[in-house]
Amino acid sequence: MILTLTLNPSVDISYPLEQFYLDTVNRVKKTSKTAGGKGLNVTRVLSEFGENVLASGFLGGALGQFIEEQLTDAQIEQSFFKIKGETRNCIAILHEGQQTEILEQGPTIDKEEAESYKAHLLELFKRANVIAMSGSLPKGLNTNYYADIVKLANEQGLPTILDSSGQSLMDVLLSENKPSVIKPNIDELSQLLHTTVTTDIDSLKEAVTQPIFKGIERIIVSLGGEGAFAKHHQTFYKVNIPKIEVVNPVGSGDSTVAGIASGLVHQQSDEDLLKKANAFGMLNAMEHQTGHINVDKFKELFKQIEVIEV
Predict the structure, then answer these.
(1) Quick check: 84 pLDDT over 90?
(2) Global pTM value
(3) One domain, residues 163 and 50
(4) Residues 302 and 189 occupy one common structural domain
(5) Residue 270 sits in the same domain as residue 206
């Protein structure tokens, strides 16, 4: 089973407008509200592909209940930890080909809740084969909270995928407890190393072999339309992808994480894991709905992806 963690989930509200006017009234004809957060995008894609997946994280208040109900309706198993605070809203205003986002900071997790959730996780770990952690940390949690979870998972011998950024990712990289997989894009890789990393193979090899990444089994770097670059132990791969019509790229990174988790849980070869991860990301980009793939198109796209050792 794949356990997905979304520690700062949200109700994602979409307001499509032909034009967005400031300092006046904008009337929305059609609104969508969905259970959101990077980890829940991972969860939905895994569920659509037929994987055995369990969603967890912090939920509170009426908005937390809304998320639970949405996942239940989608027949997705869940085991969230209830908090005193209220789960957040995240609003996207779609206008004139642009997307303006208004993101609430979310609830504050107190120390008792933070420690109790670790005990909750240890129970869930008994059922899990792979752990996928995605997104930002809510207020109240120390920036090393992901590092604490990775330590707990490592002690249970469970592989972990971490898709985070900023200080929470840096704290994990600087800790003694390393995740099994990280998935930065090339811009995030440049930010981590405080230098410009290009899509040149030598530049990528030099980047992923920096001391800060020592002990991480797999590093998978998204290169956008140029595919991906990956390191598994001491072997390097370039992933070449076909051209597709991109409809909505939002959530493609989360879908890629879902593909990595699926590859790990089935103990697939490096080549097949990388093909699956990239196929999932591309399938998401071909759909209007974020965190959604058309499974019927998977096999054909999978066959068109090339993985070469470099």
Answers:
(1) yes
(2) 0.95
(3) yes
(4) yes
(5) yes
Q: Are 232 and 270 in contact (CB under 8 A)?
A: yes
Return the number of other C-beta atoms located less than 10 Å from residue 133's C-beta.
27
CA distance 185 to 198: 11
CATH classification of the domain holding 273? 3.40.1190.20
Domain span at residue 46 reads: 1-22+29-180
DSSP characters over 241-277: ------S--TTHHHHHHHHHHHHHHTT--HHHHHHHH
Other CB atoms closer than 10 Å to residue 268's CB: what's the count?
16
Please tell me whether residues 274 and 289 are part of one structural domain.
yes
pLDDT of residue 137: 96
225 and 252 inside one domain: yes
Compute the chain's Rg from CA coordinates.
19
Q: Tens of pLDDT along 173-226?
A: 999 999 999 999 999 999 999 999 999 999 999 999 999 999 999 999 999 889
Both tokens of residue 225?
Answer: 């339309």
> Are the CB atoms for 80 and 55 separated by under 8 Å?
yes
Whether residue 254 lies in the annotated active site: yes
Q: Each residue of 105-162: pLDDT tens digit?
A: 999 999 999 999 999 999 999 999 999 999 999 999 999 999 999 999 999 999 999 9
Q: Of 187, 254, 270, 296, which residue is the catalytic one?
A: 254
| Six token digits for residue 248 | 């909505």
